[in-house]
């Protein structure tokens, strides 16, 4: 999904100062879920109680639990029942997804809608790749959902400045980061790292948000799936800003583990 902008406009000078404290707070329930990296029965009950305390999250969880996507054999009528049926890791991922969607809804624009589509596409690709590679698919999905939180923040806090980034476009991801630094004073990878630190989230998210466009970075394990998943999401049409000279589909697929590569089609449209 390539975002097209209208006529050029100057950025508001007041937008050029990055201040994570002025970013709208991420939903507390989703933050709590992000901090719960180790699932136990106690944390499942704790998360369940948190969800039940918020009508919006309760409604969203019940709606998804009763959807064809989950396909339980009987109707799910309570958050506790949904929690027990879904399990901790699946419930946590669901809460984080609902949280990001709610976060974006508060400032819904074509740009934030594009950010949402890209993040979900990246999360699904990372989750499937992790499953094929015997890695942590739940963490892969969560990391995919959160990897571009810095871009979401820039689009929310500095919409005028970010419109100029989009209008300029980019040949390579490095060009995009340079444009963000020029127009916003910070790039979305740096902004993501800043937010992860501010929200006191697990260190695993620091490298994922800060390094998914870093050419020399060599993440290991599940984290290694996020950079190619991000690129593949772009290649499949879910780009926030489409690079003019992207890597080929074959090059992107080659960055995944061999156990995952064999599951991808030879061509993107096949």
Structural key phrases:
single chain, 270 residues, mainly alpha, Hypothetical protein af1432, 2 domains, 0% strand, globular, disordered N terminus
Provide a compact summary of the structure.
Helix content is 60%, strand content 0%.
Sketch the major β-sheet: none
Based on DSSP secondary structure assignment, what is the total number of beta strands? 0
Q: What is the count of distinct domains?
A: 2
CATH class descriptor of the largest domain: Mainly Alpha
What portion of the residues fall into strands of 2 or more residues?
under 5%
Specify the CATH architecture of the largest domain.
Orthogonal Bundle
Radius of gyration: 19 Å
Catalogue the unreliable spans. 1-11
Helix/strand/pairing category: mainly alpha
Describe the global form.
Answer: globular
Helix-strand topology string: HHHHHHHHHHHHHHH
* CATH third-tier fold name of the largest domain: Hypothetical protein af1432
CATH superfamily membership of the largest domain, which one? Hypothetical protein af1432
SSE inventory with pairings:
Elements: H1 28-35, H2 41-52, H3 55-65, H4 79-86, H5 88-105, H6 110-132, H7 137-146, H8 149-157, H9 159-168, H10 173-184, H11 188-198, H12 204-211, H13 226-238, H14 249-254, H15 258-261
């Amino acid at each position: 999904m390539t975002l097209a902008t209208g006529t050029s406009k100057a950025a508001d000078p007041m937008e050029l100062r990055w201040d994570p404290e002025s970013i709208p707070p991420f939903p507390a329930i989703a933050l709590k879920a992000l901090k719960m990296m180790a699932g136990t029965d106690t944390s499942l009950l704790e998360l369940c109680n948190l969800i039940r305390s918020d009508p919006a999250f309760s409604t969203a969880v019940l709606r998804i639990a009763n959807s064809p996507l989950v396909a339980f054999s009987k109707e799910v009528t309570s958050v506790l029942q949904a929690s027990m049926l879904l399990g901790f890791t699946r419930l946590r991922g669901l809460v984080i997804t609902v949280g990001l969607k709610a976060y974006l809804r508060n400032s819904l624009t074509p740009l934030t809608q594009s950010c949402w589509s890209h993040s979900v596409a990246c999360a699904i690709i990372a989750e499937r790749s992790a499953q094929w590679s015997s890695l942590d698919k739940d963490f892969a999905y969560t990391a995919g959902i959160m990897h571009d939180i810095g871009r979401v923040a820039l689009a929310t806090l500095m919409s005028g400045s970010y419109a100029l980034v989009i209008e300029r476009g980019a040949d390579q991801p490095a060009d995009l980061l340079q444009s963000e630094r020029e127009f916003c004073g910070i790039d979305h990878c740096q902004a993501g790292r800043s937010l992860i630190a501010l929200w006191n989230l697990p260190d695993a998210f620091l490298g994922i948000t800060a390094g998914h466009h870093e050419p020399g970075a060599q993440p290991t394990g599940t984290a290694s799936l996020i950079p190619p998943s991000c690129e593949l999401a772009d290649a499949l049409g879910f780009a926030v800003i489409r690079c003019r000279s992207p890597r080929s589909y074959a090059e992107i697929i080659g960055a995944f583990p061999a156990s995952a590569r064999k599951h991808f089609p030879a061509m993107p449209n096949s």
